[in-house]
Write a structure and sequence with these properties.
With 152 residues, the protein is α/β, with parallel strands linked by helices. The chain has one domain. The protein is built from 3 helices and 9 strands. The chain has helices spanning 2-14, 60-67, 142-151, and strands at 26-31, 45-46, 54-58, 73-74, 77-85, 88-95, 98-100, 116-118, 137-138. The strands form 2 sheets. Strands 1, 3, 5, 6, 8 and 9 form a 6-stranded mixed sheet that branches. Strands 2-7-4 form a 3-stranded antiparallel sheet, with no helix packed on it. It starts with a helix and ends with a helix.
Amino acid sequence: MLLLSATELAKGFALNYVKNSLPIDNVYNIRLSLSHDDPALTQFDMYPEDNGKTIELADASRAVEILLRKGKAPVWIDISVSEIRKGKTVLTLLCGGRYSDDMKDMYYYQSGLGPFGIKSPNLPFDFKEGIKFKLPETKKSSWEKLFKRNRR
């Protein structure tokens, strides 16, 4: 499965930049249809209702359900490690809005990863090449923090 291969490569790449150990378990924050494509591109399936839509903390099987539609996937999906939350590595998937089932339409086809492009974690504003930084780490979900704050 390409998602799992891309996940492992993104985590390996992230280790060039981050000090953290990355947990084995993974979840995905998915941002759909970021390319704002011309609807006249009839060779692709497009879902304008997804423009800017975000799904958070999906496991791998849910991520595949979201990304695969009628056997087609976004032609590009940038994948990067973004944080560690509740003992899981969170990867962000930034997705184009054009869906295809033709591997040759996929941006990263020649890398063997289909639509997946491995990207670095978001670099801090003061990033210096060769100096690793810590990824944000959250032990509790933002909902748990909000609930605790509102109980006081």
